[in-house]
Design goal:
Distance between the termini: 123 Å
Radius of gyration: 42 Å
Largest sheet: 7 strands, antiparallel
Structural class: alpha+beta
Number of strands: 26
Helix content: 40-55%
Number of helices: 17
Shape: elongated
Strand content: 15-25%
Length: 726
């Protein structure tokens, strides 16, 4: 090859090479640069979206928690047992108030303390969470807190208004309680049924639960999630040593403005409600929230939710992409492969996101389609067109298809057009209606009962539509009608039983009168024979006459006991306050007067009050104490105790003795009529007393049981489901 040809070939080769390589390199550089910029933008966008979502989720979490706290505070302030105590104010209503508050704190798991103070600042009820084992503070330890400012401020509030304390650590004995307890105190005034202010309810919310939820959200962040108060102190920080600086003198300088600058802090405190910006110290996202905005109380300092992705983390991401760009630009083939891989990767990510959205939409559609209740969207105009319906709606209205139902005006499916107008007016006025019961009809003309729930919404053009649920409640309504019929039948039956009871009472009187006459004759003639003809009878005859008299007298006693048992069954309870302590003392005094020579040690708890029928409860005390008196007759040191216990479920009364006792194997016979567990010669009686006691207890909706052992005494327990006065 001649030099000229070689030079020409080399020039052509170089030209083609340059024409091919330069554009490829330029395209490669441009593509890699665009890819680099795209990745950086996408990474930053993802960071920004993630941080905004974290802030939004944290804000929603706080709003939800304080919604619950507000509802709980107002619920307790208007609780029926509290209102009852305000109206009555006796020991029993106070006991019920304590029980209800105790149950609330035990099951709610949200509060460290719950207390009720009267209008003078005196604690009436105070219950502590006590690490999951709630305790009622004894009355002797209850304090007057009127000197505290929050008490005076709360007592000055209007009804349904809540005063909330700053979020801080609980103080005990002028020192921060250890381990620390983040606490928010909610105070709400209490008004009685006449609208008079009667005190306040105080709730100490266990703020650690809120912080734990925020920390769970923070674990999903690129950066750090903080909660600040209005002074810039960390309520929740990256580590515990930076938190609660306003409560620890040595941490007073640990404030956000000192750490990150007054300009950032001022922007968050005085700028828009929420915002996001890049700063030399990183990506900052914040939202200013009002945790004390409990609808009726707009006072209080705001909290600031802040996330920060440090500049170092963003720079690390930038450096990583830059290194990839340099490495990719050095080698063409790997670069092209890498470029293809990156494009495929990003395309795959985009398609994956779209597939996630399709799956969510599909799951939502399946959920709506599989619901057993009708779900629909319709217009509130004159015809009421269906815009969307689920399959259950087709079944409810007996349509042949969704299209047939969509083409049928909803207004024509009301049995009474007036019901539709009332329903639409109510939704338009209130914004939503839940469970409105109306009569509808299917496309085939069959009428049925339905419950309608609807929410008013607007589309992007401002047009109003209703999203709602329709449930066929015909079965439930039919059940209610049957229950009503049953109640009517029961009332009729009750009247019949009342007539029967009157007839039984007349029969009991007749039996009492007709049986007593021959018994008196038997007893009288036997006594006459013994008195006037005793000398004509031998010892055997006189003994038999005495046995006749004894049997007649015993039969008279049995008739009396049966009549008492019958009267107890038929007696209507007269509800009134009853002093059980006084009843027990009166029965004991009567027993001592009957046998003044007996020495018995009695113990009666003071302050035992109940709500029931005084006459019937006297029968209970009379029988139980008489039994205890009788069965301790053979004890040289007889002991009888009357008292009560209060556990988590109910107030339990008891009568205990150290007498003869009985075998628990026969306890099932204890409360039966004429059932005796001891020989009548040793311990006389008819066997009716405990059966009578059981009837009285059952009439008070209570229960009675016993524990005993032979020669080790017995203890009888009973409860009274006491009817509350209105």
């Amino acid at each position: 090859m001649t030099p000229n040809l070689r030079n020409t070939w080399n020039w052509q080769f170089m030209d083609r090479f340059l024409r091919l390589s330069v554009p490829l390199v330029l395209v490669l550089v441009v593509v890699l640069w665009l890819l680099y910029r795209t990745q950086m933008t996408a990474t930053l966008t993802i960071m920004q979206v993630n941080e905004r979502q974290s802030i939004q989720l944290a804000s929603q979490t706080i709003d939800a928690i304080f919604g619950v706290l507000r509802d709980d505070a107002l619920y307790l302030a208007e609780h029926s047992s509290l209102q009852e105590w305000l109206d009555i104010g006796d020991i029993w209503t106070r006991l019920h108030l304590t029980t209800d508050f105790f149950s609330f704190i035990r099951h709610r798991h949200l509060y460290d303390q719950i207390s009720f103070l009267d209008e003078n600042g005196q604690e009436v009820v105070h219950i502590n969470w006590n690490d999951g084992q709630p305790i009622v503070v004894p009355a002797i330890q209850l304090r007057n807190k009127l000197e505290h400012r929050y008490v005076r401020d709360t007592l000055a509030l209007n009804e349904k208004t809540i005063l909330m304390s700053p979020f801080d650590l609980n103080i005990e004995h002028n020192a921060i309680e250890q381990p620390t307890k983040p606490t928010i105190r909610l105070n709400v005034p209490v008004f009685d049924s006449d609208g008079l202010k009667r005190g306040m309810v105080v709730l100490n919310y266990r703020g650690q639960r809120l912080l734990d939820r925020l920390r769970a959200i923070a674990e999903q962040n690129y950066g750090k999630l903080w909660l600040l108060n209005a002074d810039g102190y960390w309520l929740m920080g990256s580590h515990s040593e930076m938190e609660w600086g306003f409560m620890y003198p040595e941490r007073q300088t640990l404030r956000f403005d000192r750490e990150y600058g007054e300009d950032i802090w001022s922007s968050m405190l005085r700028g828009p409600q929420h915002d996001q910006w890049m700063h030399e110290k990183g990506l900052f996202t914040y939202a200013r929230i009002g945790p004390t905005k409990l609808r009726d109380n707009a006072e209080g300092e705001p909290w600031i939710l802040v996330t920060q992705v440090p500049s170092a983390a963003i720079a690390a991401s930038t450096a990583r992409h830059a290194r990839n760009l340099i490495i990719a630009s050095m080698v063409l083939a790997p670069l092209l492969i890498l470029l293809s891989g990156v494009i495929t990767y990003h395309t795959g990510r985009r398609r994956q996101a779209e597939e996630t959205q399709r799956q969510v939409k599909s799951r939502y559609q399946k959920l709506v389609n599989n619901l057993p209740v009708g779900v629909c969207r319709n217009t509130p105009d004159e015809k009421g067109r269906f815009l969307e319906v689920n399959p259950a709606m087709v079944d409810i209205f007996e349509a042949e298809s969704i299209d047939q139902l969509l083409a049928h005006p909803f207004s024509e499916l009301y049995c009474d057009p007036v019901d539709r107008k009332i329903f639409i007016d109510k939704v338009m006025r209130q914004g939503r209606v839940n469970g409105e019961e109306v009569r509808l009809k299917t496309l085939r003309g069959r009428e049925f009962d339905a419950a309608l729930t609807a929410v008013m919404k607007k589309d992007t053009t401002g047009e109003i539509y209703f999203d709602g649920i329709i449930e066929d409640i015909s079965v439930r309504k039919e059940g209610e009608r049957k229950i009503q019929q049953l109640n009517n039948s029961l009332r009729t039956r009750s009247k019949e039983l009342e007539v029967i009871n009157q007839e039984l009472e007349a029969f009991s009187y007749s039996v009492s009168h007709d049986l007593r006459a021959p018994l008196r004759a038997i007893d009288g003639f036997s006594r006459t024979l013994l008195n006037e003809y005793s000398d004509r009878l031998d010892d055997k005859g006189r003994d038999r006459l005495r046995r006749v008299r004894t049997a007649a007298q015993r039969m008279a006693d049995l008739i009396d006991d049966l009549l008492k048992l019958s009267r107890v069954t038929r007696t209507e309870i007269k509800w009134e306050p009853v002093d059980l302590t006084q009843l027990a003392k009166e029965v004991i005094e009567a027993l001592r007067q009957d046998e003044p020579k007996r020495v018995v040690q009695f113990s009666v708890h003071s302050g035992m009050t109940a709500y029931g029928d005084a006459r019937l409860l006297r029968v209970v005390m009379d029988n139980l104490l008489s039994n205890a008196w009788k069965f301790t007759n053979q004890r040289s040191e007889a002991i009888i105790e009357v008292g009560c216990n209060f556990d988590k479920k109910a107030l339990t009364y008891f009568v205990r003795d150290n007498g003869a006792g009985f075998d628990m194997a026969y306890v099932s016979k204890l409360f039966g009529a004429f059932q005796r567990l001891h020989d009548a010669g040793e311990f006389p009686g008819s066997g009716i007393g405990l059966a009578t006691v059981q009837r009285v207890i059952h009439k008070h909706s209570g229960c009675i049981w016993a524990k005993s052992a032979v020669d080790q005494g017995a203890i009888f327990y009973f409860t009274l489901n006491e009817k509350r006065s209105v």
